[in-house]
Write a structure and sequence with these properties.
Layout: H1 7-19, E1 24-25, H2 26-33, H3 37-47, E2 53-56, E3 59-62, H4 72-81, H5 93-100, H6 122-134, E4 136-142, E5 145-157, E6 160-167, E7 170-175, E8 180-188, H7 193-201, E9 212-218, H8 220-228, E10 236-240, E11 246-252, H9 255-265, E12 269-273, H10 275-289
């Protein structure tokens, strides 16, 4: 997918066309939106796979019984599900009408994540989706080890898909592309609301019952980035410093999770506590420089 792909506006316009009864030709959509054929196929076959779409003579259209059922609430829900709800200043009806207008939409350009190619995983996605909704166990191989997992959520983080599930009594995250020999079972399990809340409320996808709280000093040169949006998982601004910098706290599941983030922001971010993490960071840099 191209970095300049205006994914939110494109999907909204495709939804609007389908809802009005249009039969969509992939090649025409490629020309209209200026994206690749593969991107349009991913839109129709993956991103909009929840719709009752039919394909006939290479044209995609909605089943008759579903025509006209998509409304602005559906579009708002889709925006929330796809993680772009906060992308726009507003998602009220008037704004959605404007953004769907082909002329108004030319005023917008969204440079989003590059997403891993999951075009060959549609069957597995549907299998996991059904297991989550029916609260049934999944069996698969992960890191050369057979697993039996209670699936809770499919999560996309920074363009990568993960499965959050409970193995034994531990909430874990599995990279979807590394799951093999996936099989459904008919063994049901009871949903644990505390697990649901943990997945929903924790910015971190690497869940742990013993999180490490880290305090960092952010220099004024980059403080604006941390003020405008959360750069770190579970980020909290503790204090605005006199020189324009910030004291920021975060919670992580393991050392390397925060160390790799700090490395990206060197020399403008420093770990204040726990001290061993800053020492570990510096020792690693010394080894690299050698």
């Amino acid at each position: 997918m191209k970095n300049h792909d205006t994914i939110a506006t494109r999907l909204a316009q495709i939804l609007n066309k389908l809802n009005s009864g249009a039969r969509l030709d992939v090649e025409e959509l490629v020309e209209e939106f200026g994206v690749t054929k593969r991107t349009i196929q991913r839109d129709l076959n993956e991103r909009l796979s929840y719709l009752p779409l039919k394909k006939e003579n290479n044209l995609y259209y909605l089943e008759e019984y579903y025509l006209g059922k998509l409304n602005f609430d559906d579009m708002q829900n889709f925006a929330a599900l796809s993680g772009v709800k906060e992308l726009f200043p507003s998602l009220q009806e008037n704004f959605i009408k404007d953004i769907l207008d082909s002329t108004v939409s030319k005023a917008y350009l969204i440079k989003g994540h590059n997403y891993e190619d999951m075009s060959d995983k549609n069957k597995e996605f549907k299998l996991v989706e059904q297991a989550i909704l029916s609260h049934t166990l999944l069996e698969y191989t992960y890191k050369d080890k057979p697993r039996r997992v209670k699936p809770y959520k499919l999560i996309n983080s920074k363009g990568i898909w993960y499965l959050a599930g409970v193995e034994g009594e531990i909430l874990k995250t599995f990279s979807f592309n590394n799951i093999t020999k996936l099989q459904a079972t008919e063994i049901e399990f009871d949903i644990d609301d505390t697990v649901v809340d943990t997945i929903k409320d924790d910015d971190n996808i690497w869940f742990s019952s013993q999180q490490i709280e880290v305090v960092l000093q952010v220099e004024s040169e980059v403080a604006g980035y941390f003020s405008r949006r959360d750069i770190l998982p579970n980020q909290l601004i503790i204090k605005n410093l006199a020189d324009g910098g910030l004291l920021v706290s975060t919670k992580v599941a393991y050392d390397e999770e925060i160390l790799k983030l700090v490395r990206y922001w060197i020399p403008n971010v420093r770990i204040i506590s726990p001290a061993y993490l800053q020492d570990k960071l510096e020792e690693g840099l010394k080894g690299y420089l050698k």
